[in-house]
TrEMBL record:
<keyword id="KW-0479">Metal-binding</keyword>
<keyword id="KW-0436">Ligase</keyword>
<dbReference type="InterPro" id="IPR009000">
    <property type="entry name" value="Transl_B-barrel_sf"/>
</dbReference>
<dbReference type="GO" id="GO:0004813">
    <property type="term" value="F:alanine-tRNA ligase activity"/>
</dbReference>
<dbReference type="Pfam" id="PF07973">
    <property type="entry name" value="tRNA_SAD"/>
</dbReference>
<dbReference type="Pfam" id="PF01411">
    <property type="entry name" value="tRNA-synt_2c"/>
</dbReference>
<dbReference type="GO" id="GO:0005524">
    <property type="term" value="F:ATP binding"/>
</dbReference>
<dbReference type="InterPro" id="IPR051335">
    <property type="entry name" value="Alanyl-tRNA_Editing_Enzymes"/>
</dbReference>
<dbReference type="InterPro" id="IPR012947">
    <property type="entry name" value="tRNA_SAD"/>
</dbReference>
<dbReference type="InterPro" id="IPR018164">
    <property type="entry name" value="Ala-tRNA-synth_IIc_N"/>
</dbReference>
<dbReference type="GO" id="GO:0046872">
    <property type="term" value="F:metal ion binding"/>
</dbReference>
<dbReference type="InterPro" id="IPR018165">
    <property type="entry name" value="Ala-tRNA-synth_IIc_core"/>
</dbReference>
<dbReference type="GO" id="GO:0005737">
    <property type="term" value="C:cytoplasm"/>
</dbReference>
<dbReference type="GO" id="GO:0006419">
    <property type="term" value="P:alanyl-tRNA aminoacylation"/>
</dbReference>
<keyword id="KW-0862">Zinc</keyword>
<feature type="domain" description="Alanyl-transfer RNA synthetases family profile">
    <location>
        <begin position="1"/>
        <end position="238"/>
    </location>
</feature>
<protein>
    <recommendedName>
        <fullName>Alanine--tRNA ligase</fullName>
    </recommendedName>
</protein>
């Protein structure tokens, strides 16, 4: 199994690793995964691998068997053989924008306290789909409320609970379309605020900023009708 460095430290920009596998499709699996694999609406990380004077551009990262990160080359190229010691270098600017948008979407789910039916994170933009038969009456008020949470510079931390504990607290799961991964025996929760002054707490496996102030100003864009019961709320980093 590969160790998920992206989960232990979302701010880590480069790290050594050993190649432990090559996929039939031309992907690379490392002993220590710095690159986040596509999942939960968040795109896979990009960057490069370096070894022995050679370099390989990584276009994206996907989940392989057992949930490991599989690095997908940008173009066909010679891959580092199994056992090679490599240095993985993250496209940090892109990852950091994902972190800012992802955390902003958590706050959006607080500002609009309705069931979430879908979502997508981009490098500077994002959206959530809500079970919302009628559009919000005041978009400016929503944007103001969202940016007030950002300006409070709240701590963003993680905690873990068992699958049984999550079953006993089903309201923690806001997203109807994506359920937390099971099978490991425990579930990662992302908290915004403190345990005594909590703003949000929900299962999530993605990467986030450490403080909401790091998000920067957020704009609420178009609110789209996505069916009789659904509305899509788009956001962007200002």
């Amino acid at each position: 199994m590969s160790e998920a460095l992206y989960r232990d430290d979302a701010y880590l920009r480069d790290a050594p690793a050993e190649v432990i596998g090559l996929t039939a499709e031309g992907g690379v699996v490392l002993s220590h995964a710095l690159f986040y694999p596509t999942g939960g609406g968040q795109p896979g990380d990009s960057g490069r691998l370096e070894w022995g004077g050679q370099s390989l551009t990584v276009a994206t990262t996907v989940k392989g068997e057992g949930g490991v990160s599989v690095l997908v080359p940008a173009e066909p190229a010679a891959l580092p053989p199994v056992g090679t010691q490599v240095r993985q270098v993250l496209d940090w600017e892109r990852r950091h924008r994902h972190m800012r948008v992802h955390t902003a979407l958590h706050l959006l789910s607080v500002v609009i306290p309705l069931p979430v039916t879908g979502g997508q994170i981009g490098a500077g933009t994002g959206r959530l789909d809500f079970l919302m038969p009628e559009p919000p009456s005041d978009r400016d008020a929503l944007e103001q409320a969202l940016n007030l949470f950002v300006a409070r510079d709240l701590a963003v931390t993680e905690t873990w609970i068992s699958e049984a504990e999550l079953d006993a607290q089903p309201d923690l799961v806001k997203t109807m379309s994506v359920q937390p991964p099971r099978g490991a025996g425990r579930i990662r929760l992302v908290r915004i605020g403190t345990a005594t002054e909590q703003v949000d707490l929900q299962p999530c496996g993605g990467t986030h900023v450490a403080w909401t102030g790091e998000i920067g100003r957020v704009k609420i864009g178009k609110i789209e009708n996505k069916g009789k019961q659904n509305r899509r709320v788009n956001i962007s980093l200002a």
